[in-house]
């Protein structure tokens, strides 16, 4: 078990089976040592966290949604690294999207739910560049979606 998986286990995080694409795309593409991971929404075995942030759900629920996106991203990273999270050399960039209501502006704090998980799981290699954007709508009414670029050995 890799050090990353040990950290996740210590925090009680169990990685799900990576979700299959719902349209005409692939879950990730590898180009050289970089892997581009398609957006992962705030879904889990219970259906996930849906709704408009600032209207249907509050900041804390939205951060939890971003955390779920991070868990799903790590599951895709594991698949891209042939089952070995120890092969993830660096989280390069996250792109975060929040389905935000018109009066909600704490977009960066929401995406911290995912960013914090990356640092907890990968240590300094989890520190990344990032964008955090409020959007009108996300697929299937999920509250948050995050994509990633990572470096794999």
Task: Summarize it.
The protein is α+β, with helices and mostly antiparallel strands and 153 residues long. The chain has helices spanning 3-10, 59-80, 107-122; strands at residues 28-31, 34-41, 88-99, 129-135, 144-152.
Helix content: 25-40%
Which whole number gives the mean pLDDT?
A: 97
The low-confidence parts are none
Tell me which oligomeric state these chains represent.
Answer: single chain
Count of strand segments: 5
By DSSP (H or I, 4+ residues per run), the number of helices equals 3
Largest sheet: 5 strands, mixed
| Backbone CA Rg | 14 Å
Largest sheet strand order: 1-2-5-3-4
Decide which structural class fits the backbone.
alpha+beta
> Whole-Å distance between the termini?
17 Å
Strand content: 25-35%
Shape: globular
Order of helices and strands: HEEHEHEE
Description of the molecule:
This protein is α+β, with helices and mostly antiparallel strands and 153 residues long. The chain is 30% helix and 26% strand. It has a 5-stranded mixed β-sheet. β1 (28-31) and β2 form a beta hairpin.
Summary tags:
single chain, 153 residues, alpha+beta, 5-stranded mixed beta sheet, 5 strands, globular
Secondary structure: elements and pairs:
Elements: H1 3-10, E1 28-31, E2 34-41, H2 59-80, E3 88-99, H3 107-122, E4 129-135, E5 144-152
Parallel strand pairs: 3-4
Antiparallel strand pairs: 1-2, 2-5, 3-5
């Amino acid at each position: 078990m890799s050090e990353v998986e040990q950290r996740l286990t210590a925090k009680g995080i169990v990685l799900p089976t990576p979700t299959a694409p719902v349209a005409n795309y692939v879950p990730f593409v590898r180009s050289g040592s970089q892997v581009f991971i398609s957006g992962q929404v705030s879904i889990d075995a219970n259906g996930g966290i849906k709704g408009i942030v600032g209207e249907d759900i509050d900041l804390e629920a939205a951060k939890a949604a971003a955390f779920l996106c991070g868990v799903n991203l790590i599951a895709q990273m594991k698949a891209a690294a042939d089952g070995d999270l120890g092969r993830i050399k660096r989280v390069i960039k996250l792109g975060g999207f929040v389905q935000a209501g018109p009066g909600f502006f704490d977009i960066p704090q929401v995406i911290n739910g995912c960013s914090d998980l990356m640092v907890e799981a990968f240590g300094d290699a989890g520190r990344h560049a990032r964008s955090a954007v409020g959007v009108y709508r996300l697929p299937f009414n999920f509250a948050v979606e995050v994509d990633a670029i990572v470096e794999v050995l």
